Each structure stands twice: as structure tokens, then as C-alpha cells.
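Case study.
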Amino acid sequence: MMDWISYLRAQLPRLAADPAREAEIVEELAQHLADIEREKLASGAAPEEAQAAALAEVSNRRALALEILRTDRSQPALAPPPIDPPSGFLVGLAHELRYSFRQLARIPAFALTVIVLLALGIGINAATYSVVRNVLLEPLPFRSPEHLAIVWWADKAWTTAFQGSAPVSGPNFLDLRRESRSFEHLVATAPRGVNLTGHGEAERLQGTATTSRLFEMLHTQPSLGRTFRPEEEQPGRNKVAVISDAFWRNRLAADPQILGRSLTLNGEAHAIVGVMPRGFQHPSPWTVGKPTDVWIPLPLDVLQVGRDANRYLVLGRLKPDVSYAAAQAEMTAISEHLERAYPDADNPGVALLIPLRQVLVGRLSGRLWMLLGASGLVFLIVCANVAGLFVARAVRRQAEMAIRAGLGASRARLMRQLAIEHLPVCLLGGTASVAVTVAATHVLRALMPPSIPRIDEIRVDGSILVMTLLLSLVVALIASVVPTLTVSRRMFSELLRQGRGPAAAARGTGRRVLVVAQLALTLMLAHGAALMLRSYWTLRTMEMGFNTEDVLTMRLDVSGPRYAKPEQVGRFFDEVVGRVKSLPGVTQAAAINRLPLEGGRNDTVTIEGRDPSLGRGPLVETRVITPDYFDAMGIRLVSGRMLAELDGTPGSLPAVVINQAMARLTWPDASPIGKRFRYDEGDPWLTVVGVVADTRQWGIERPARPEAYMIHGASAFQRELRFLVVRSATDPAGLAGAVRREIASIDSSQPVADIRTMADVVDTAIAERRFGTMLVGIFAITALALVAAGIYALMSFFVAQRTPEIGVRMAFGATRRSVLRLVLSTALTLTGIGTATGLAGVLATTGLARGLVYGISPGDPGTLAGGTVFLVVIALAGSLVPAWRATRVDPVEALRAE
Amino acid sequence: MLKHELKKGSAELLILALIEDRPRHGYEIAKLIESRSKGALRFHVASLYPTLYRLEKRGLIVGRWLEKAGQRRRRYYRLTRAGRSLLAEHRTSWETFILALARVAGLRTA
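After joint prediction, the assembly is written out as follows.
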């Protein structure tokens, strides 16, 4: 037998880098040759023959050596970082991060897509969160804001517009202030329309009348001069004013010598004693969106009148060591004492203490949280989308994964590596999202209706930025866990098909789960958006009870010494109305004290014939009008007759027209015509002569409240006439100039403000809902686009993966149509599962949505069905192109590729 | 003799299949291929061992020196889990392919 080892050692070129390995190979080959030789000998061949047979096996020694050497040298496509880091955790980390950045630079399209997705997803969320946080959660920007509270007068027997509470009457406030020991300060405020004259054109300013301690209560020093002194609450000493920074800069040219200058307010000179710092506004639910220009003292003589007239917003600061419970107990005790002391006041109630922040923003909390929830859904959808992209990429890198696994990496190790790899692109996305956050916050601030409080406080600060960083880490984590769950299982049973396309065997389960999750979340979001849209539409197209197209309104706060008596105000409006009626283009004109939808002015009345032991009658919105108001506003008469000029003259029967709500509430079983009621004992009985259609008073969503209209001439209420209502034959807004000129020609010192059409009024009333609907709509559209893209990507992958199978099917005679069916049915199955999950999610959360929708049930089947169908359509749209591509598969090519 | 390309594509399948039941050394594998195919397939050293080494480098098979009683040590190869999985894959793919071929080209099979 030949010594094959020596022979091979001599004859073969180098086989391996490592000499030990080379020796092994030589030994192995030698044994093979020896076996051949032995076998030949055993079957009877001659030794030379046997040797020749063995030699024939290695005839081309160079080629053999080359092959073996090449195998020895072969490396995977990219050198991955060592499995065991050279030294220490941080060095390994840096190593892997560098590798990740190198990887990223190779695939700019992928990296860019992920960065854009993350920037949008995180940015929108952070912006929404900054709104929610600054409006709802942040304490008010005053010292110790948790001690600031509002005192409401809770009417014992009847609920009123503000959830059973009303502002406080002057005398009650004075008694509370005198007797309470729980407060550092108690302050009464009231908005005052203030007419500024003598400074160019007459102008109406936003004013607030307040008792002297308002600014001390808020711990805010003026930037110039001083604030009010207690003695300035005395009548005669109260002709002073404190102005806002904005008013000082915009209207008074930031005059440094402003202190001591005089402003003519409502015909009386007021000396400016102080200027408040920039941005200061006293926090009040009544001045949201209408910042105060000038504060004037609320004099004692005004406060001392009318124990049953609840008209002042009372703010208070609790003493630091007094709890709300203790203060409330004291308030209750004082209220009871007042009731006993003044049994004839006819205003039974109890003083309620409510934290100021709650009053300001409490009504919005449900809606804002929902908005945050919706944006959270978008974030999750973005996460799922990005995770899907990462999985797709990981699948292509299975070769490398498998090698690492083969070389001993554990699944946790691989997860860690993936997480670190995803970190750079996620952090880049997080950085980009900062820009989106800032921009989106700006946009939100600009678009938010001014009725939402604290808009100026919305800003992007450090904690928001930290949040964006955290969110990008969360995405990196989620997007790393999902691919490793699928890939790592596969990698031990999977093979690298060098040079082949996406691993044919990867089932794509992880990606399917992600797409199903996206579908479910999108359905929830789309359903929410549809609900909001329908609610908005219901409100938008609802019968308002008045004409929205042709009516112009203006606000005239009449003031000054010429209008001290109520009837002087009434005559002024009569003259204005008369003149305006004769203008070309004007069909009708009238005046009223309050416009529909903009709040009310209500009083408790006593119904004739009602058992007095039942308590006082309903709370009725009181409206004082000129005769043609219903015609001008387009309010329909339901029964009886309208009010006429005659009803206003002294000596005539005091007549009143009520609305349907009052008729239904007070006289449900009989016609109200001819029935009577009155305000206070001693007031004349008012006779109902007509019923008109309901119009809403407290915004657009609260149903109409009982309302009574009377001609201004008949009552002292006529001092409250404030709004001019003009019906036009053509474009109402075009009449504004002409009407103003008429008014100026009667009395140029009465400024005209708030020139709006009734369409504008409705618009303002619906602005908040429109804003919310728009936002949720944007979220839903984003989600739909993402889910369509996600399905498109998944279906493309599916088709690519199954191309050989499709080729085989077509070779067996499958038609293009059946291939189309195959792809679409897969998409439909996924959509079905996703939709079903989404429906479950919707049904689980209907309770949450109940307070947020209007005129529709959150589980409305029609909307759900519509949303489902729409989602299915979107999903199919996303599958169309891949499906079409599938039908274009050439069977021969497909099989050859395999 | 079978065309070179066909042989090359199936080399992996053959090797993996033969060590499915128990580990074998190189000569054993070569002999089995020849005998079971009734002489239709033959692998020379030049094609067998490089393939074995490649498979080993890819983690599909693993080779160990074993010394049996009274004999010199030999290098035995066995399947890894990855190799086992790939073998199943290969089988499926080839079966599908062959079936398709049969239908299309009208072959008779055993």
C-alpha cells in the first residue's frame, strides 16, 4: 500500500491557512485513497491497477487544492462584529454602534423612511401631549396655585346652567368676605364692557370690574405704578384704572409717562394708576379668549345691592394651612347663617368651593384625554409599521443571523444586537421628531379656538423633549423584539441561500401580526373619526331656530351720562333700529340683550296658580327685545301672537312671549296662552301671548332652556339692550359699514363692536368641536395611509416569497384570475382578523366615548359597518399592485429561479 | 452520465440525506452514492471533499475524528439541526420540481 499521506503532502499545493487543519485534510484524503486502493485489491485487481484507480481520483490536484483552499478561506458577505466583545461592555457597544451606522449608510431609502415615519409619529404625539399637559395638568402660573379657588353659589332647589351653580350676589359676597376666616383674600369680579372715548374713534374695551385685592391674591406686582387700594372700593374714590401690558403697548404706544394719565371710560374719567406685566391675565372662566384690557374697581355701593342677583364671579385664595374641606365647612355654615338672617332674600343656596383649575379646564378634560388617546393610537400604528420594516430587513439578513447563531450567539444576544442596530435610526427619528413637535405645537396653538383656556401657556420644553427621546427608545425596543422572535427561531432551521432572494421559508408570521395590529388600531381610529364627523355634521346642519344666512349682528354697550336711565337706553335703540330699517338692503332690524348661543341671563319666576310650597318656579332666560326681533332673527311663531310696539307702552297689559321649552316645562298639558307668571313679589303679572320656536342659549350642544321675551319699554330690563340684529336681503356682512355710519350719526361716542353675522356666531359656537374633529380626522387619515402602505409591503413580500409556488400553479394550469384570488384572499383574511379585533376594541371602549359624541351612539352600527367596509377597501387597494404583479409571474422564470 | 449541472445542484441533497440516519465518513458516503444510484452518480474526491468542507463551514454538518477499536481514526460527519431542516427543504423543493418537470415534459418516473 502506498504512503498516501506523504504523496499528498508532496503533490498538493497549500490547502488551508492553518497547518494543523491542513494535516487533517491530508490525512482524510489519504484515507479515502487508501480505501479505494484496498477495495480494488480486495476485488482481485493487481497492485498497480489499484494504485492507478486511487490516483485517478486526484488527477487534477491543482483544482482540488484550489477548491479546498477556497472553502477554507470563505467568509460571509459582511464581517459582523465579534460575538464576544474584545473587552468590556462599553467597547463592544461602541463597536456594534459603529457597525450599525455603517449598515445604515448603505440603505438610505430604508433609513429615511423610518426616520420620516418616526418623526411624524413621535412628533404628533409629543405636540398633542404638550397641549394636554399645559392646558390640563400644569398648575396655573401663579404662586401656590392649588390654593386658588372659585366660590359658586349653589342653588338649592333648581339646577342652573353651570351644573347647579351660579355666581354670587354682591351682598352675599360681602358677608362671606367679612365672616370667613379661611381665606387670605376673597375677590369679586365681573366683566364690564367699557367704552373708551376721547382717544380717536370710540372703542369698546374688555374690562373687568374687581374688588381691590385681586392682584395681591395672585401675588403679581404691576410693572408700572400700583394696583388698587382698599379705599378705592368706596364710591366716589373708584375712578381709577389698571391697564394690561398689551393695551398699553398697542393702544397707548407704551407711553412711559402713562401713570396719572386719564382714560374716558363710559363717559367718565379714570386715572391710570398701574400697568400689569406682560402676559398677565387674571384666571377666570368668564374671560377665556377675551383678555382684559383694563381693570376698574368694583364699588361697594354696587355690591351692596341685590342679594338675589347672582352676578359676580368670586375668586379666593385659601390660607396656606387651611384645607378645602375645612374651608367648605365654613362656607356652608356661613351660607346657612345667611339664609336664616335674610329669609326674604329669596336666594337660598350654599357657597361651593371649587379649585380654580378645575373650573377653568375641567370641562375639557374628557375631550383632551381622548385626543391624546387618538394620537397614541397613531403612535402605535407607526411603531407597528416601523417594526414591520425592521422585520423585512432582518429577514434579508438571515444569512448573517444564521452564521452568528451557528457561531454560538444566543437569541438574547441577537436581540441585543438588533436593538443596538435599530438604535441609531430610531434616535435619528427622535431628533427629527423634535422639529415636527415644535412645528405641530405651533400649528395647534394657532388653530385652537380661543374658547380653550391657557393656550398661551402651551409650549415645548425640556420634559417634552425627554419624552420624544423616550418614545424613540420605546420604538427601538419594540422594533427589535418582534423580528428576533421570528427570525431567531428560524435561523437554526433556516438556511442561507447564498445569493438567493428573501428567504423563501420565512413565513412572515411576525409581519402578519404587525399588519393585523395596525388594521385593528386603524379601525378604532377611523371609527372615532367617523363618530366625530357625524356629531359635528349633526350640529352643523341642525335646525337652529333662527336664520343663519341673512342676519348681521353688532354689539353696542351703551354708556355715559346721557344713558343713565333705562328708558334712555331704550329710546336710543329705538332710534338706531328705526334708522337702520330704512337703509337700502335691510329687510328688518331689531335689538335684544343676548344673542342665541352666547349664554344667558336668567331669573327664577313664580307661576300663577302654582302651589307656593312647591318652591319657586323655573329658571327662565330673560330676553328684552324691540318688536321686530323675531322677524329680524327669523324665529318662527308657533302659537299666539308676536309682541308689538303697543305692548311696551305704560298702561298696557304686560305681555310676554315664551319659547317652546318653557311651554313644555311649565304648562305641558294646556296651551300657555293667557297664563301668567311674574319675577318678584310685587312685580306685575306677565301674560303669555305667544309661543315661538326654541333657540339654544348655552352653546350649540345644550338643549334650549325656558325663555321669555318682553318688549323693552315694559321693563327695567331695557337697560340691558345690547345687540343690534339686522336682516338683509342680500349679503349681511356688506351692510356693516352703512349701519355703523348710521349709529355714529346718532351718537358717535358709542362704539360698535363684535360685528358678526349669525353664521359667524354659529361658527364660534361649534369651533371647539370642529377643531377636535379635524385633529382626529387627520390622525385617522394618517393611520389609513400607514395601514395601506403596510399591507402593500406585506403583500409584495408574500408574492415574492411565493413566486415559485405561483409559477408551479400556473404551470399546472391555474388562471391569472385564480392567482389574483389567492393573493386577495390572503389580504382579505388578514383584514378580516384585523377588523374583527378592531371591532372588539371599539366595543370595549364605547363607554369612554359616550360623553364625546353628539346625537349618535358610540357603538352606532351604521358607522361601524361603514368604517369596516372602508378599511377593507383600503386594504384591498394596498394589495392591488402586488396582486397584479403576481398574475404577471412567468412560470418558467419562476421555476428557474428556484 | 448525468449532466454536470444537475449533479452539482443535487450534491448537497445527496450528502445530507446519506448522513441523516447515522454519521459516516467520506469514503462511505461516496460508496453509498454510487451503489444506491446503481452507478449513475459518482463523486470523485475532487468534488466530494470540497462540498463536505463547505457544508461544514455553513454549519449544516459537523465532522469529528472518531477512533474505532483496532482502526485508525477517521473523520465522521453528522447532520446538525440546521442541516436536518435544510434537508427537509431540499427534499420538498426537488419533489415539487421533479413533479412539475414530469407533467410538463412527460417523463416516466420510477
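Observations recorded in class. Residues 758-811 of chain A form the longest helix (54 residues). Chain A touches chain B at residues 24-25, 28-29, 31-33, 35-36, 57-60, 63-64, 67-68, 70-72, 74, 402-403, 406, 492-496, 505, 804, 808, 811-812, 895, 898 (CB under 8 Å). We will return to this complex in the next lecture.
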